[in-house]
Amino acid sequence: MANTYTQIYIQSVFTVQNKLSLIRQEWQEELYRYITGIVQNNGHKLIAINGMPDHFLEKFQVPFDERCIFKPVEY
After folding, report:
1. Cα separation of 27 and 62, whole Å?
2. CATH number for the domain including 42?
3. What's the pTM?
4. Alpha helix locations (H) across 1-75?
5. How many separate domains does the chain show?
6. Disulfide: which of 13, 25, 40, 61 matches 45 by Cβ 3.0-4.6 Å?
């Protein structure tokens, strides 16, 4: 369709094993930068990332491309 505009947003939550408070404030920013790099290197746009000592959340935009939707993410 000529005037179709599609946006895909994904919100994900990652938690540490057994819900222990393992994400230390000293290296929390470094973890967020690392996750941001993974998201951006896969062609997505990070909208937000935040968290607590036992989990973090991220919201990112996926460009609508059928080839991208079914492409496995590589770390």
Report:
1. 27
2. 3.30.70.1290
3. 0.69
4. 25-41, 66-69
5. 1
6. 61
The tokens for 59 are 């919201």
Whether 4 shows a pLDDT value over 80: the answer reads: no
Q: 10-69 pLDDT, tens per residue? A: 899 988 888 888 888 898 899 999 999 998 998 889 999 998 988 999 999 887 765 555
Cα–chain center distance at 70: 17
- Does the residue 62 lie in any domain? yes
- Domain holding 19, by residue range, is 8-69
Q: What amino acid is encoded at 40 in this protein?
A: Q
Q: What are phi and psi of 62, to 5 degrees?
A: -105, 125
